[in-house]
């Protein structure tokens, strides 16, 4: 087992990794920008190193500074968390070249799945069902028109090298295809430095279903069920739950087994999530995230398995501590992402937290690095907390979530807590009757 792990991240995920390390008896090194000198993960870590000014490119994306910090502190391994460098294959390779262990997948798998065109081709070859679409990048407008005619309108144009909704446009017919194609290419180039785009059939009312997997270096790959992440705005998830209200046990087992078989063939190692659109009983692969997900706590709540702890054990050369047969899905869990934004128009709301009172009680978990007096910096992602509840049934989880949202107090800044309370008051959400377009329609109606 490792003696010291450097955490190459910030905020609640850095704190989450620190806690898992300490429970394993591992010392931690926190890296931070000058803006995060007073952050909770810095306060709690055994050691800390300032790696640069506030801008992420000069600190949390500064590979030489992070590797230097790991070297001077004598760290054995680096955990990237999610975001920042977590899916940077070059970073993963450099970590290994410097004699350290990267707590995550192999660099070649990160690179493979980071290119959405290659990922889709690989998934198809491995027997994972895919959305009908182009075989590769589309080079010009003429090729886009031909592909759209073959696929059938409406179509979705997507960046090959990115995600998060950037470089993604819908074309409902030929009259708007050219503009959508050019806009998507421009956004992809600006966001990712790679203007390649590809095309998929646009599904009108799908749910976003993802399968959590984890594998070790000894050929074992296990799935931990699904998460329903359909409540999203501009392709950014806001609420996640497990199990999905739309799936039954046989569907879960079938798609889980398909994914495990595929990743076993690939020789995949560590945690990963295979994401699908689900419509009319069919699954369609959209991408794979080769890292820990923001929403991993809902899986931990229904399985009782500590995913971060398993990640660390696997990276140290150990085998999975459980088999597929030992995985049990108990009850229901829901997560709300709380962001420092206006709950009506989503304007950023950084600033000093004057009050902080998280909810508690049986089946309630809050992952956050906030505290009263902390100043939320404007330089990074706006998520400041995750509220996760667990109940013996979905109805119990909903009641617990309602109570917890009413208890949650974050003063001094605007947050999306009021939006979550409004969502929980709708019949559609209570009934589990929603798709990936539901939240944007809801926000639009309520504006």
Report what the structure shows.
By secondary structure, the protein is α+β, with helices and mostly antiparallel strands. Helices cover 35% and strands 26% of the residues. The chain has helices spanning 11-23, 40-44, 63-73, 89-97, 107-114, 116-125, 141-151, 174-192, 249-266, 296-303, 307-315, 394-407, 417-424, 427-431, 438-446; strands spanning 4-7, 27-33, 47-52, 77-79, 101-102, 155-159, 168-171, 197-201, 207-215, 221-233, 236-242, 270-279, 282-289, 332-339, 351-352, 355-357, 364-368, 375-376, 383-391, 409-411. A hairpin with a 5-residue loop joins strand 9 (207-215) and strand 10 (221-233). Helix 7 (141-151) packs across helix 8. The radius of gyration is 21 Å and the shape is globular. The model has no long low-confidence stretch (mean pLDDT 96).
CATH architecture of the largest domain: 2-Layer Sandwich
Q: Any idea how many domains? A: 3
Indicate the CATH topology of the largest domain: D-amino Acid Aminotransferase, Chain A, domain 1
Tell me the distance between the termini.
Answer: 52 Å
- Helix/strand-derived category reads alpha+beta
Major sheet: arrangement of strands: 13-12-9-10-11-14-19-17
Individual helix count: 15
Strand content: 25-35%
**Main beta sheet strand tally, sense and closure:** 8 strands, antiparallel
Helix fraction by DSSP (H/I, runs of at least 4): 25-40%
SSE diagram, text form:
Elements: E1 4-7, H1 11-23, E2 27-33, H2 40-44, E3 47-52, H3 63-73, E4 77-79, H4 89-97, E5 101-102, H5 107-114, H6 116-125, H7 141-151, E6 155-159, E7 168-171, H8 174-192, E8 197-201, E9 207-215, E10 221-233, E11 236-242, H9 249-266, E12 270-279, E13 282-289, H10 296-303, H11 307-315, E14 332-339, E15 351-352, E16 355-357, E17 364-368, E18 375-376, E19 383-391, H12 394-407, E20 409-411, H13 417-424, H14 427-431, H15 438-446
Parallel strand pairs: 1-2, 1-4, 2-3, 4-5
Antiparallel strand pairs: 6-7, 6-8, 9-10, 9-12, 10-11, 11-14, 12-13, 14-19, 15-18, 16-20, 17-19
């Amino acid at each position: 087992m490792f003696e010291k792990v450097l955490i190459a991240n910030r905020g609640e995920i850095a704190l989450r990794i620190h806690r898992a390390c300490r429970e394993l008896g591992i010392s931690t090194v926190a890296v931070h920008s000058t803006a995060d000198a007073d952050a909770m993960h810095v306060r709690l870590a055994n050691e800390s190193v300032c790696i640069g000014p506030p801008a992420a490119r000069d600190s949390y994306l500064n590979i030489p500074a992070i590797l230097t910090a790991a070297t001077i502190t004598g760290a054995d391994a680096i955990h990237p968390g999610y975001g920042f460098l977590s899916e940077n294959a070059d970073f993963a390779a450099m970590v290994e070249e410097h004699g350290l262990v990267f707590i995550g997948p192999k660099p070649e798998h990160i690179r493979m799945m980071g290119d959405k065109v290659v990922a889709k081709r690989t998934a198809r070859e491995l027997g994972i069902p895919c959305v009908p679409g182009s075989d590769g990048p589309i080079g010009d407008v003429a090729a886009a028109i031909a592909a759209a005619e073959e696929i059938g309108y409406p179509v979705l144009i997507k960046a090959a090298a990115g995600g998060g909704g950037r470089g993604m446009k819908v074309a409902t017919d030929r009259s708007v295809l050219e503009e959508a194609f050019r806009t998507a290419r421009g956004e992809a180039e600006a966001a990712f430095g790679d203007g390649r785009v590809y095309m998929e059939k646009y599904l009108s009312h799908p749910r976003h279903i993802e399968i959590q997997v984890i594998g070790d270096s000894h050929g074992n790959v296990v799935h931990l069920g699904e998460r329903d992440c359909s409540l999203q705005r501009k392709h950014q998830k806001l609420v996640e739950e497990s199990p999905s209200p739309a799936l039954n046990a046989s569907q879960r087992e079938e798609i889980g087994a398909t994914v495990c078989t595929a990743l076993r063939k690939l020789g995949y190692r560590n945690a990963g999530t295979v994401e699908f659109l689900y419509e009319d009983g069919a699954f369609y692969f959209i991408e794979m995230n080769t890292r820990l997900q923001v929403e991993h706590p809902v899986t931990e709540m229904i399985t009782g398995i500590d995913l971060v702890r398993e990640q660390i054990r696997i990276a140290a050369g150990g085998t999975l501590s459980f088999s597929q047969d030992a995985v049990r899905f108990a009850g229901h869990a829901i997560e709300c992402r709380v962001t420092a934004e206006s709950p009506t128009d989503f304007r950023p709301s950084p600033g000093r937290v004057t009050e902080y009172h998280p909810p508690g009680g049986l089946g309630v978990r809050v992952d956050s690095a906030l505290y009263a007096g902390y100043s939320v910096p404007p330089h990074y992602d706006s998520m400041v907390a995750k509220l996760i509840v667990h109940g013996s049934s979905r109805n119990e989880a909903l009641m617990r979530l309602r109570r917890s949202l009413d208890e949650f107090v974050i003063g001094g800044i605007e947050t999306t807590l009021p939006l979550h309370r409004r969502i929980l008051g709708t019949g559609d959400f209570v009934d589990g009757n929603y798709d990936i377009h539901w939240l944007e329609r809801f926000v639009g109606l309520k504006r």
